[in-house]
Each structure stands twice: as C-alpha cells, then as structure tokens.
Amino acid sequence: MTTLDQLQNLKPHFISVTCSNNKSDFEKTTLKLADYINNTLDIPAIAHLPAAYLSANQVKRILTELDSLNIHQVLALRGDIIPRIPRKNDFNYASDLIKFVRAQEPSFEISGACYPEIHPESPNLVSDIHYLKQKVDVGCNQLITQLFFDNDKFFAFKENCALAGINIPIIAGIMPITNRKQALRLIKTTSAHLPKKFMAIFDKYENDPESLRTAGLAYAVDQIADLITRGAAGIHLYTMNHAETALSIQKTIGSLFKTNNKQLNNQ
C-alpha cells in the first residue's frame, strides 16, 4: 500500500483501480484496494468493470459490494480480449454494461474509455465516434482517454466529440515515460502517434537512465501544462504504481490545477 499512501498527499479527485479479467482476482484484490483507497485514504475510488468477463449477476453482486463500501464510481470497459480466457455473454460492448449499471440502484457515476487516435478495432473515425456516442447516450458521465503523446490529436478528438453531441467531460490520459524498458515496449506496441520530439528524447537518452527519466518527466509536464491551458477537463496520470512520478509532476505544476480548477487523477 506504500504507493497509495504516497499518492494520498496529492489529494487527487479519484484513483482508479485496474483489474485482471479474472473474477476471483477482482473480488479479492480490486475490491480490497478500492476499499482502502476510498475508506482509509479518503480518496474517491473508481473500480474497473470489464464487460466481456462479467455476467449480469456478477455485476449486480459487485455493485452491491461496492455500495456497501460506499464506493459509487465505476469505469465500464469492454476489456481486452484474451483468447485463453472465456468471455461471458451478457455484455458484448461497454455500452451494454453502462446501460445495465445505469438501470441499477443505487445510482453510480459511470466513466467510459475513449481513444483520441481511434480505437484499434474501429474501421474509421466516424464509426469510432458513433459508438462512443452510444456510451454517452446510455448513461456515461465522463470519458477518460487512453494515453497519447500529441496534444493536437487530443484537441482534434475533443472537437469531433463536440460536433457529434458528446458534451460530457473528457479527461486526458497521460503516461510519463521514465525508463528505457517502458519506452521500448511503448514504441513496439502502442498505436499512439509518437512525435519527433518524443522520439528525439528516447534516441538521445536511451542509454542514460537518469537523463531519460528527467526528460520523460519534462515531456509529460509540458503536455499537461498545455492541456490545462487549452481547456482539458482534467488529467488522468497512468502512474504504473510509481508514486514518485505523480509527486514530481505535482511539485512542478500542481498550482495549475488549483488555478484552473482542473482534476488531477491517478491510476
């Protein structure tokens, strides 16, 4: 719990709790962590719900348990499709799960995921925005983006959402790159556009861990300052269990969140 204890000092608007696509792990780990965040640290917790791997009865039971813990926020996702793990049949898409949760009592605040550079499985932008609008129409309260490194992509996406009638808050997901292994994995697997400035940092400091961390944090700080200045609803940091990353960013530009009344959240 050390990482969570350190994040407490940042006073984030929420901490989201990821989960595996394994029911027993969810009930043993995710609920335990969400309980600790919400009721010991006194920070609102958001529990992830993977639609593809939960039945309607499981969701009902989980919501009841969350309610008993005074946790009333969830992030409704389809979940990554993993061939070796059998899917459930009650919810084909995140929008199905959102609609189901919205119909339950008591009421939950529901976050949804979005992709500034189009979901990898979407054939085009029009289709992607169409299905995102479905999430909003059935009861999603706010959206949290996948990571991105080009702010212009985010603001173009935000404008497309507005044109489609998607007017709920869109929280920008930022992942500070602080080590070589993380950067290499990202370059190999992500569909996010990697600007020349980002690649230049990696190329120059690939074999200099301390400088790579410093430059990676500086890049994230620059992104966040620009996002806040240009009107992003808030920032969701993908900290990857490294509290010092969030603490460093807060120390550098924490005043911007207060001045602009913006959210700072962690995962």
UniProtKB/TrEMBL annotation:
Pfam families: MTHFR (PF02219). Gene3D superfamilies: 3.20.20.220. GO terms for molecular function: FAD binding; methylenetetrahydrofolate reductase (NADH) activity. GO terms for cellular component: cytosol. Pathway: Amino-acid biosynthesis; L-methionine biosynthesis via de novo pathway; One-carbon metabolism; tetrahydrofolate interconversion. The keyword Cytoplasm does not apply. InterPro entries: FAD-linked_oxidoreductase-like, Mehydrof_redctse-like, MTHF_reductase_bac. This is Methylenetetrahydrofolate reductase. The lineage of its organism: Bacteria, Bacillati, Bacillota, Bacilli, Lactobacillales.
